[in-house]
Amino acid sequence: MKARDIFSYSFSAIRLRKLRAGLTTLGVVIGIAAIVALLSVTQGLQNTITNQLETGLATDTLIVVPGRGFFSEGGTSIGGGFGVGGSDFKLFINDTEIINSLSLDIETSVAIIRKNVYLQSQEQSLVVTIRGVDFAKYAEIYHTTFVADKGTINLNPANDEIVIGKALHDPWENGTLLFNLGEELEIIWTNTTARPPENVSYTGRVTAVLQEIGGFGVGGPSDVGVYIPLEQAQHFFGTEECDTIIVKLKTSERDVINAVSEAITDAYGGEVSVVTSTAVLNIINRVFSVIQLFLAGIAAISLLVAGIGIMNIMIVSLIERTREIGILKALGMKNRTVLMIFLGESVIIGLIGAVLGIGAGWALANVVAVVFSEGGLFGGIASGQSAQISNGGLTIVPVLTPTVLVGALIFGVGVSVIFALYPAWRASKLKPVEALRYE
Amino acid sequence: MAPLVEAIELKKTYMLGKVPVEALRGVNLKVESGEFLAILGPSGSGKSTMLNMLGALDKPTSGKLLIDGIDIATLNDNQLSDLRRRVGFVFQFFNLIPRFTARENVELVMSIADVGKAERRKRAEELLEAVGLKDRMNHKPTELSGGQQQRVAIARALANNPKFLLMDEPTGNVDSKTAREIMNLIKRLNEERGVTIIMVTHDQHLAREAKRVVQMFDGVITSDVVNGEPT
Ligand SMILES: Nc1ncnc2c1ncn2[C@@H]1O[C@H](COP(=O)(O)OP(=O)(O)OP(=O)(O)O)[C@@H](O)[C@H]1O
Ligand SMILES: [Mg+2]
What we know:
- By secondary structure, chain A is α+β, with helices and mostly antiparallel strands.
- Chain A is built from 12 helices and 15 strands.
- Chain A folds into 2 domains: 3-53 and 283-437, no CATH class; 90-267, no CATH class.
- In chain A, a hairpin with a 6-residue loop joins strand 9 and strand 10.
- Chain A starts with a helix and ends with a helix.
- Residues 70-85 and 376-392 of chain A have low confidence and may be disordered.
- Chain B is an alpha/beta fold.
- The two termini of chain B are 20 Å apart.
- The interface between A and B is medium-sized, with 25 and 26 residues.
- Adenosine-5'-triphosphate binds at residues 14, 16, 21, 23, 41, 43-49, 92 of chain B.
């Protein structure tokens, strides 16, 4: 029998039981839609996060933090900013000189003192992470992001100067200002190492507002950052220690990055971790692959349920059509053709289900993305009395990769066909005389 | 040349639960190509069972059945299908496919035999016209009378130009006038086109139209008469 005739025969059998076929197809639609929606949303989220990180992480910079890395990646430890504790080792501000001397590929390095403080104006009080940095060097390393939108960043600043990120100035982008240029702000720090703990404070002045950066600003400037001169920070916090040293390389070649990372780690006997942007991105990508696999797995279960539905319905249909199959075989139809007719029915159901499912999943992904982006799961700024500022809203644009598209199609049809194999095989093995006698 | 059909001590036993039912108890029969043979016999005598064997729908329990000199017991499912395509079969209970119209039912056998679409349609219409169903072509079996369904079944059996026609009571459900017409059609096929015909019937009168009449009783052949002369 010709393929087209087999197909149209399958189709006529499906049309006979429209409601039943429709419900079976719905099972496939739901399964495929779940897979497509979950994968395209997570892919969109991954892209967003990767983009934001790429904005924040210059590829030619390394971040050195005290503490052993919690896992390694190509000889480079990842840690510090990603939460490593347990080490007493401290970095000092003048370690920048030691680091600079380790390799000719290093252009410069800058130490950062980081503390959580209250930032207080007449009306507002916020907990912020303040960073003491050498304005001149920091601006040199981050020459695209540590740039004033309003006011000026003095390369040789007075002690009371404060540079704030865009989100601390105009978070809602509607003219309602949080802290303004030229405003005097009180910086209050609780020294918990003093006994009893004491509050110290000084009054500074906003001399610059950074232009909008976007991204998470790992290591680099961020929209929620507050920057004061390094010497002022040293003096105010009474410390020679620093939390992070940012190292700027002359190139962003992978070999150089690895060699310098290793040199730094070795120089400190493994007591520091060096974070590179590529390593961070690799980890993010790996984490996302696991998440995607996990989510797709869950969604795949619903498709398996649909598959069992298909099998069930095919067995019912096989029993109902026993006599019909007997006729077909008595008229000389081959076993293989009977098999193909049944599989054809499952291909039609799987194909229609997969196509509708991809459409439905894509629509769902877009709805989820909008809710996700606007609903403030990540976005929004909590403000008010001693509130912590979070990042600006993340916008997720769902992505349907060709792999997911083709995969969903193949998977939908594949599951349908696999679950139809057994009923189809049974149909093909029916004996004509017995089937013809079946009532 | 080997006879078209040769049955040697053909036996068929069905199991009804644990009780064996001997439908055929040793049938010996030779049919040459071009014969027109009627099988007569009371209900339950094994006529349909015999016809199913001849149409390669079923395999014997013991004994031999040679079709064109080939023992059907040695054929696999695929070869049996090929054989069935070359045989025109009119079932006792029509066995039309309910969701297809008369024309589609006739076309189906041709599509199984890989006949092209245009050719299928043309031939189905010719055949249905020949059995007097020109104006019923687009009706489904449920919209047809028993006799009309029977005629669709005959048209279907003829669709692939078989050289061998097996008919289980082809006139069982029609009035005597239609029965005559069908008999004439069958006779013409036999005389003009040399189609070998084996026809099961209850009707003594119709059986007389055949050149050879075989009587069955209780699973065996009790008489075999050619042109009125016992063999
Ligand atoms: N599949 C089967 N299972 C069990 N018994 C069967 C089966 N097919 C036929 N028989 C039995 O075999 C015997 C012969 O049946 P068959 O159908 O060949 O009779 P028949 O001569 O065609 O009768 P009728 O004229 O009523 O059609 C009957 O006793 C019947 O009950
Ligand atoms: Mg019978």
